[in-house]
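User: Design a sequence. Structure:
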């Protein structure tokens, strides 16, 4: 079965629905107002990061903007040691209205990419409090092209890979900090026969780009 359909029809989707319902009820019953952040626009992020040079900044078409419902996005192509890659960040200031990041495991198959394998790996990232982050390692193919996708979710106080756990974290953010802001980070790089080289390249980029991006969004 197509992974996207399996997700939509499976038990995990029902669990997420219940979690979101509980979260919404708790959030609205709490007495104080939600904290809505106002970080600088993502486009103000520096074009070059360490040895990585921006090659192109993509304009997201109106149809995709309507579908994503993100408050701010960043979509760029970079070139650096070992080859090219793309970075996407979608930031959501509030999820009280039911707006939430879309999983690449749904979006990429819908765009014609075939999923091959998926697991969670840890990326060491100097310069952040935890020192490391869990990310989804997702391999997809389209005809003869294969790509490695690394993606993860971030709130003001947590980083996580699991889509379902992120909903539990969002409940904690709402109850403890009166926040529901969240971002999804996604890095895609082509696999030219060597998965290990693609993974090394993508992780090296994350180590350079993630700390300053995280600081820009959640400095306040």
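Assistant: Done.
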């Amino acid at each position: 079965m197509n992974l996207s359909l399996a997700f939509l029809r499976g038990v995990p989707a029902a669990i997420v629905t219940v979690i979101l319902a509980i979260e919404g009820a708790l959030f609205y019953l709490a007495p104080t107002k939600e904290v809505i952040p106002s970080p600088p626009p993502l486009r103000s992020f520096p074009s070059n990061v360490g040895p990585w040079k921006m090659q192109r900044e993509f304009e997201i078409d109106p149809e995709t903007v309507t579908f994503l419902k993100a408050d701010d996005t960043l979509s760029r192509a970079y070139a650096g040691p070992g080859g090219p890659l793309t970075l996407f960040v979608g930031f959501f200031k509030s999820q009280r209205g039911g707006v939430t990041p879309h999983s690449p495991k749904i979006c990429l198959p819908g765009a014609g990419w075939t999923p091959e394998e998926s697991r969670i790996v840890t990326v060491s990232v100097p310069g952040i409090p935890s020192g490391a982050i869990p990310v989804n390692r997702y391999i997809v193919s389209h005809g003869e092209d294969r790509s490695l996708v690394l993606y993860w979710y971030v709130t003001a106080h947590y980083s996580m890979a699991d889509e379902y756990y992120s909903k539990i974290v969002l409940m904690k953010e709402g109850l403890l900090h009166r926040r529901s802001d969240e971002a999804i980070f996604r890095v895609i790089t082509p696999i030219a026969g060597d998965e290990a080289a693609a993974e090394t390249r993508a992780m090296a980029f994350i180590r350079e780009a993630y700390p300053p991006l995280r600081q820009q969004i959640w400095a306040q």
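Residues 75 and 88 are 4 Å apart (CA to CA). The longest strand covers residues 114-124.
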